[in-house]
Records
---
Amino acid sequence: MSDIAILEVDGKKYEFPIIRGTEGEVAIDLKTLRGVTGGVITLDPGFKNTGSCVSAITFLDGEKGILRYRGYGLEDLATNSNFLEVTYLTIFGELPTKKEFKRFEETIKSNSMVNEEMKDIIDGFPKNAHPMGILSSLTSALTAFDPKSVNVEDEEEMFQAICKTMSKIPVLAAWAHKKNLGHPMNYSNNNLSYIENVLEMLFKIPTESYKLSPKVVNALDQLLILHIDHEQNCSTSTVRIVGSAHAGLFASIAAGVSALWGPLHGGANQAVIEMLKDIQKDGGDVEKYILKAKDKNDPFRLMGFGHRVYKNFDPRAKIIKKAADEVLEDLGIDDPILDIAKRLEETALKDAYFVKRKLYPNVDFYSGIIYRALGIPTKMFTVMFAIGRLPGWIAQWREMRLNKEPIGRPRQLYIGENQRSFVAMSER
Ligand code: CMC
């Protein structure tokens, strides 16, 4: 095995070190490329082949369908752990002791008050504003109430900032939902677990008592574990790049929320349900929609299908599909949309177009069905994804700062006009 890669440009050879990850992944270290070649850069739109960092958080093998947080398999964690424990693991690198977990949970709870003036900001939104827009704005607004930047070298300061972020974002998410409903905003209830609290803040209304269902709590807990981290995806890269300019944690997370909103990323879970409802309204003919997805003159894509990294199957989708069946059965719900989803999946997986391009259902294909069963409205699906992804964003932001990564600033290949002289308007 060589440790050197040789690149030839215009007849000159350059050597670059090869770096190997702990799982045998290989990277050519091109940090010095531009300097030694006098300006040559790599061009890789969409960063399909570009590693932007080294990371010890998540291992993902798209060919084999493997996903591990800090070395622990996703299925192992989803079966044996809970959302807050996996959050601790993802951020700090090790499973917490009983004492560490207690301190983490208690510090999160002690930070759950959100400044009342935030409600003035919410008042300014139209009632039907998308909750992801509200969440991104409110997350950014947290900076105004807590402007001191965190000293990332100070473990205690960092710990407090992490707990504060974990604590306040679900409150804002629930408030975004309440704004849409025109209901009063709920406060955090520190007698509840993290996930119970999320559910109560979303669903409780002042006129009635809210009874938590253990089945619903478990289903949401498991679902959110699957969303915790996914290495350098669009929103996580956004969080890292915004943070690389030394923007604070709240500002960086706000940018991540905006990136997640896109229908090609976290917004796909909402888009999947809308697509399934359209198919249902249109008579349930899945073949017609498969044809549309294959038609290059039709912009329609099968939402919840395909993935930049998984070219075999998405391990999260496997767990979620099973969970969707169980949740619906447990809650006694018969959702015709699930049947359409299953028929669509079956048909697509047999179709040469999807087989050739290795397009499989991704995490978002079945997550919306579970959210629907839990009573979460479609507009809130991506917000739920954001609550799930929050620990991953925090872990990646912290790692980026502790590794003292340089400010993210890609290069470009200019293909515009060469220098020319200004032409007066009268002569154009
Ligand atoms: N339906 C129909 N054709 C598709 C689809 C789809 N969902 N996804 C990819 N293709 C085709 C695409 O047209 C292209 O065909 P061709 O080679 O003939 O030009 C080929 O497959 C490769 O697609 P790509 O767009 O180059 O692949 P990508 O890695 O850039 O995009 C993706 C990945 C997830 C953006 C894309 O598969 C997609 O748009 N899927 C639907 C949206 C979706 O479900 N997103 C959620 C992703 S998982 C949650 C998350 O991590 O955020």
---
Amino acid sequence: MLLAFETSCDETSAALAHHGRVLASVVASQVRLHAEYGGVVPELAAREHLRNLLPVARAALGQANVGPAQVEAVAATRGPGLPGALLVGFKAAQAVAFVLRRPFLGIHHHEAHLFSPWIQGQPPTAAFSEFEPNVSLIASGGHTMLVHLESESHHRLLGSTVDDAAGECFDKVGKLLGLPYPGGPEIDRLAQGGNAAAFSFPRPMLNEANDDFSFSGLKTSVRYFLRDRPGFCGDPQRLRDLAASVQAAIVEVLVTKTLRAARRLGVGCVTASGGVACNRALRHGLAGACSGHGLRLRLADPSLCTDNAAMIGVVAERQLMRRAETTSPTAEILPNWPLD
Ligand code: KG4
Ligand code: ZN
């Protein structure tokens, strides 16, 4: 049984993994705390992790009905992430491993996202299913990247955003439209009743021959669009149309570039994870494009798209099985840990 912690940003999470199964997963989200400020406040996030970490760990142990003595290994996110936030979960996990005299593993946050689409079902029966080579899209509030997973132990970063992340673009556009933070889920909801072809927004870097993304220009074009149309957001239908049109631009870029990379590299499978992978238009767009090209699609369950310790636990267990490699109990966090 492996006890895992995740505290890289604004979710405090603990989970228990055992032989590829997620037996328990508990997430305490800080989204309401940060909503007041329109974004994550690093110092508040760290303090909140400190408050929530032990209750969340106790809840995970309770959910799986196990005691600390049954924990055979401990893991935590080592990076990348907010330094103060990472520090709380990483050092607490090292202390738990030390006290229980168990091996400790520091896990790369994005590596965990890459494997989250392979966890199927809900705890306590959620299990890791058979892996196949794939191209993986990670789209969250802090990152947008495409990764080629040639095997379970070999991955290569293909491209990433040169400025804003896709989730950041959703959130900044949400702010311009006067929507609550985070804007992503709000735009998704509004777009359901809107016409995606009502307004035309740029599709940045869509036709460039690389796997990189850029979203800051799209946000700026929405700002100019609204500046030239005072009072535009006062009309609920126009607001829905605008949300649908902006969402369509983001989704088209993500879907097109992911599919292009998958076809170029000749993989049979595409996966997607990260908070933005909750987006219904993105899930629908990827499903349509993959079925059109005979590619299998694995989308992380929405509960595993946003940050969680279940994905940390599953990856840590597999690393332990494969390489029997652990992290020093005195190792430090790596807030800027690159994926490659
Ligand atoms: O992965 P995540 O929880 O945190 C980071 O590591 O950043 O992702 C949060 C991001 C936010 O930008 C949020 O607006 C976005 O994911 N998001 C969505 C949706 N749900 C969450 N964006 C678009 N549509 C959604 N349904
Ligand atoms: Zn994340």
---
Amino acid sequence: MKVGIMGGTFDPLHIGHMLAAESAREAYMLEQVWFMPSHIPPHKHAAGTTGAQRLAMVNSAIAGHPAFRVLDWEVVRGGVSYTIETVRRLQEEYAGIEFYFIIGADMVQYLPKWRDIDELVRRLYFIGVGRPGTPLDLDALPQHIARRVLIADMPQLDISSTMLRSRAAAGKSIRYMVPDAVFDYVQRSGCYGVQP
Ligand code: NAP
């Protein structure tokens, strides 16, 4: 069985994340994609929302997709969410599954800096999906990493969580840039400064 792991801070989850997961699933015939919200991402400040809020957003967004699931492991573990720790546990608990870690183009360039990247690329393949303005340049990576990165095309969407947080804080609409269920959750909970 082939399973994609869609790791992210998802602060908030938006349609670029959903499309990246769906594009990778289709391109590499993944039977499932498991969303894995991080607690504190290794390369950023902690999210402004709680892990429970981000889990709720992801759960609500993926509810209608038969091949999508959510794992709360990184949020429950707490601390900095190093992918290698998650992948070691995944492979221990699901020995028969072949895992693929789905990432955006910005993250592909940053892979050499990931903790224990040499072990990670021995353990799984990455699937890199496009992002406007960031070419997926595998030649810039060390060869042993580049040969473990597969490419999936997706319709280009210039949407980021940072942009959505700024829009929400400025009182601008984020409707249709996030799944409807996430939009409803943000409205109800008042996160990102949205008036409930
Ligand atoms: P994020 O901002 O929530 O985004 C999740 C993923 O979706 C990212 O790979 C991002 O790629 C991609 N994405 C977002 N918007 C997109 C769009 N419009 N089009 C295409 N792709 C888009 O997640 P994150 O905080 O960067 O974290 C990504 C994962 O990498 C997490 O699981 C994190 O723990 C892991 N990570 C691990 C290490 C480590 O172990 N040392 C270091 C860094 C990250 P972009 O990069 O292009 O935004």
